[in-house]
Amino acid sequence: MITLLRSSSDPCSKNFQDIWFPIVFLIVVTMHQHWLKCIVGALLLFVLSTCQSEPDQTDRNQPDVGQNSSTRYATCEMSPNLPLVEGMPQIYGRVLFRQGNPNGTVRVLLWFNGFPTGSGPQPRALHIHQYGNLMNGCGLTGSHFNPEGVTHPNHLGDLGNFVPQQGKIRAAFESEVTLFGHLSVLGRAVSIHQGRDDLGLGGNDGSLIHGNAGVVLSCCVIGITSPDLWSAHIAQIRGI
Prior knowledge:
The chain is α+β, with helices and mostly antiparallel strands. Helix content is 25%, strand content 25%. It has 5 helices and 8 strands; from the N terminus they run ααααββββββββα. β2 and β3 (106-113) form a beta hairpin. α2 runs antiparallel to α3.
């Protein structure tokens, strides 16, 4: 009995509510002073409302996926740019990120569909942009992510060119970006372009700013996710 009472000391615990609330209710009912009934009844209602507003203890103890074992996973779910130029392909898919710790290397997976399947597949440029603002399609994502203030193609957000095969891009590579700290790419945008990034060799001002990669076909915002997506996609890419 003593053990049960000790385990019921939390007024929001199920044991406390099962044992003490009926007792308090009986005391209130048998009271003769009306004013005292009102006070005790109000206190009982207050405790009940407080318990109902608190999250379940299981939820409070559940670790955030972004803090799980210090390994951080992120995803970026691609949607076609709006308005998309007529005749441009509609690209769907995702970019996945994995980083084992704040000082570890980021691994990136690309999983895109929707490219033309005609002869001579064209390389497509992939960039991380400064802002995760998709209120106007992909037009408000800002410049390439470039916290070091260097010229293109040395931005942290310059991820390179990727060649579709049979209308798809499946790729895995490492990047110098991070998912931790003030330089984290979480909340920033990823865009895939109509054309090839000239890697700063185009001989004009645009080449040193954005690589003359053309219009954005599709974009997304990077956000924390669970390890499940990464595990599923990396297994499929290894099987290709």
